[in-house]
Structures are given as structure tokens and as C-alpha cells.
Amino acid sequence: MMTNNFLYKDLTNLILKAAFNVHTYLGPGLLESTYEACLFYELRALDLNVESQTALPVIYKNVKLDCGYRLDLVVEDKVIIELKAVESLSDIHTAQLLTYLKLSGKRIGYLMNFNVVSLKTGIRRYAL
Fold it and tell me: Looking at the chain, which runs of residues are DSSP E strands?
């Protein structure tokens, strides 16, 4: 597990390397859940603290409500990864990740679409 002093840049570089490894090995065309499981495996193999399908409650009028939101992956309690396996990313996918960042208090998020020929075209980074 990484220390709190672990720099975001170093952490995000490891995340990207792991994602590219998964995409290179599997290619496009599989289910989102497959990419999620494989990326989880790759990140854990790097000795990173990774949570999968983490519940994200909504605080409404000082009441915590479980609305069924789930974060695909959270790495080192710092970075949210929202995975997709779609024809193309849309504005609603971006809005989803930005909402997750706001609700969770995390600063960095990645939207990754694995259903592309080159993963470089399927990754978007967002920071609050």
C-alpha cells in the first residue's frame, strides 16, 4: 500500500499503465465488468489499495441516503475510476464522474472507455 505522501502524478501514472496493460491484453469488445475485474487485479498486483463497487451515499438535508450509486474503482482513497465499454463516451458519462467526485470529496477521476481500438482515445481525466 502506498503512503499518504504518494504523489498524484505517480499514482495516476501507475493507474494508466495498468489500464493500458488490461486493454493491450484483452482488446475492445468485452463487458465493462470484465475490464473492471482485470483492472482491479492489475492495480492490486502493484500493491495499491483498491476498492471495487464502493457505495456512494447522497447527503440530502443532512440525511445520508443510499441511492444506489457505486464507484467502479477507488484507488488509494484518492482517485475514482469510472469504467465504460460503450461505442463512445457522452456528456452524461462526464456528468456522472464529476458528480461522483463532488459527492465523494475526491479530487481526481478517470473516465475510461475500453471499447476502443486505442485506449488513448478512450481515457479522460478530470480534476476538481
Answer: 50-55, 58-60, 63-65, 70-75, 79-84, 108-113, 123-127
